[in-house]
Amino acid sequence: SCFWPAHVPDQLNHSPDWTSKCASAQKDWRKLDL
Fold first, then answer.
1. Residue 20, class by beta-carbon neighbours within 10 Å (0-12 exposed, 13-18 middle, 19+ buried)?
2. Longest pairwise C-alpha distance within the chain
3. What are the Cα distances from residue 34, in Å, to 9, 16, 20, 22?
4. 32 or 15: whose pLDDT is higher?
5. Model pTM?
6. DSSP secondary-structure letter at 28?
7. Is the pLDDT of residue 34 over 60?
8. Angle at CA 2, nearest 5°, toward 29 and 30?
9. CA distances from 1 to 18, 22, 26 (A)
10. Cα within 13 Å of Cα(2), Cβ side
C-alpha cells in the first residue's frame, strides 16, 4: 500500500526513491480509474 507521509518530511528527504515509487503507484492507480 502507498501513503503520503506529509507529517514526516524527513522521509521525503532521506528516501527519494521511495517517494518516486509512491508517486508512480498513485499515477498507475489513477490510470486504472477505480
1. exposed
2. 31
3. 29, 27, 21, 17
4. 32
5. 0.24
6. H
7. no
8. 15
9. 12, 9, 10
10. 12
Asked whether the predicted pLDDT for residue 8 surpasses 60, the reply is no
> In whole angstroms, how large is the CA radius of gyration of the chain?
11
Tens digit of each residue's pLDDT (9 = 90 or more) over 15-26: 556 556 667 777
Q: Which cell numbers in the block locate residue 10?
A: 524527513
Average pLDDT over residues 7-17: 56
Residues 10 and 30: their CA atoms lie apart, in Å, by 26
Residue recorded with cell 522521509:
11
